[in-house]
Design goal:
alpha/beta; about 25% strand; nine-stranded mixed sheet; about 400 residues; four-stranded antiparallel sheet; single chain; about 30% helix; binds zinc ion
């Protein structure tokens, strides 16, 4: 993404200010950076990245870039291990977040006449309260359910007449299945679903949309950068619009750190432009996506990124090419006769990397060879790498309750 002059100026100003923050985090981060040296986008791209570990080191309130008197709220991101990350918000940050969230609702065609059923959690996590503040600013009726208690969720949807469901994809699916099981769809007024931006397959999306009979929108965000609501998909369903007046974003190769061309998949890196409590410069989200060039047919001028295609941790580099599960899901979906379960083995033999793709199919054994060849040539055409394919019967690959590991790198 080309950096506008005013964005460069903004970043120069932010760094000059952050260098003077009394607590150590920002001062030490930018100690060796002279803001006047940041004259071009290339200069900016030489600034160090910020990663979650850096934020953890600032626990508990080391991230506050203003006097703690000005902090009106904190949130904390759910780290799986160790020290949590605490993000301080000023009144201005809280307001800016609500303004962005209101925009998200508007892009999704939601109005003050809507009744917004909010199932993401409240508390230290940023989700629920973000959905709520945006709904209130819009003037819609917020129904702050929080997660769980499916019985009550459905009852409130019926009795309050909720028109918009906000949920994670997994909770939306659970509710959709329960609503279908009870045969109560016709007693609901749901029209739209605003679904959190975890990666979810097309099959899951289609099921939620058809069982609930709603239009779905992908909403993006992360606690470190306000929370959900910094971008959303529109009726064109052609990527998520990102609010580039509040953030500057880059797509980088997660292995080299270099910016990739528009359209190439890489890691999303975000710089905040207005955040006061805890501004972040070049924050690595570890989310994989791509910049979508050009203007959207919906008329909205905010630039777009693709829906989240996976996490950088899931990515492997083979024969000079980055490969990750979201891509393989996509390829397999396009071929009839291939089920959604697969496993990839990467081995290093006789000086070469070998990729073997096991996938399940319900085709009889005499038709599997041709299917294997079809998958192989499709993979070659889409990713540019030749692989070995091994079709197996449905149920032969291991199932996992938790997130399934699909790529096994046996090279090291
Ligand atoms: Zn659009």
């Amino acid at each position: 993404m080309i950096m506008k002059t005013e964005v460069l100026e903004n970043i120069r100003g932010q760094i000059a200010k952050l260098k003077n923050v009394e607590n150590g985090f920002y001062a030490s981060r930018f100690r060796d950076v002279n803001p006047e040296d940041i004259r071009t986008q290339a200069d900016f791209e030489n600034l160090p990245f910020t990663d979650k570990d850096n934020l953890r080191d600032a626990y508990p309130l080391g991230l506050a870039a203003v006097s703690t008197d000005e902090i009106v709220r904190i949130h904390s991101s759910s780290g799986t291990t160790g020290t949590p990350v605490i993000i301080p918000y000023t009144r201005g940050d809280v307001e800016d977040w609500a303004v962005m969230f209101k925009r998200c609702y508007e892009i999704a065609g939601i109005t003050k006449k809507d009744r917004i059923h909010i199932t993401p959690g409240y508390g230290l996590w940023t989700a629920g309260i973000g959905f709520q503040a945006g709904a209130e600013l819009l003037g819609a009726m917020a129904v702050p359910m929080g997660p769980g208690n499916t019985e009550k969720q459905i009852r409130f949807m019926q009795d309050i007449g909720s028109t918009v469901l906000c949920a994670t994809s997994s909770y939306a699916l659970l509710l959709a299945e329960e609503i279908a099981r009870r045969g109560v769809r016709n007693s609901l007024k749901l029209k739209k679903g605003v679904i959190g931006s975890e990666r979810w397959g097309e099959k899951m999306r289609r099921r939620i949309a058809s069982e609930l009979g709603v239009t779905l929108y992908d909403i993006y965000g992360l606690t470190e950068i306000y929370g959900p609501g910094i971008g959303i998909s529109c009726d064109e369903d052609a990527g998520m619009h990102m609010f580039d007046d509040y953030l500057f974003y880059e797509i980088i190769d997660p292995k080299t750190g270099k910016t990739v061309p528009d359209g190439t998949i890489g890691e999303l890196v975000i710089t905040t432009l207005r955040k006061q409590g805890a501004p972040l410069i070049r924050y690595r989200t570890h989310d994989l996506t791509r910049a979508i060039p050009g203007e959207c047919a919906c008329g909205c001028k905010f630039p777009r990124i693709d829906s989240i295609l996976g996490r950088t941790d899931d990515m492997v580099k083979v024969k000079g090419v980055n490969i990750f599960p979201g891509q393989i899901d996509e390829i397999l979906r396009e071929i009839d006769g291939v089920s959604s379960e697969y496993q990839v083995m990467i081995d290093h033999l006789e000086g070469k990397d070998w990729i073997t793709l096991f996938f399940e199919t319900d085709l009889p054994s005499d038709e599997r060879k041709a299917l294997g060849v079809a998958v192989q040539s499709h993979f070659k055409a889409r990713i540019g790498v030749t692989i070995l394919t091994k079709p197996v019967s449905i149920g032969e690959l291991p199932r996992s309750e938790k997130k399934a590991t699909r790529i096994f790198d046996n090279r090291y």
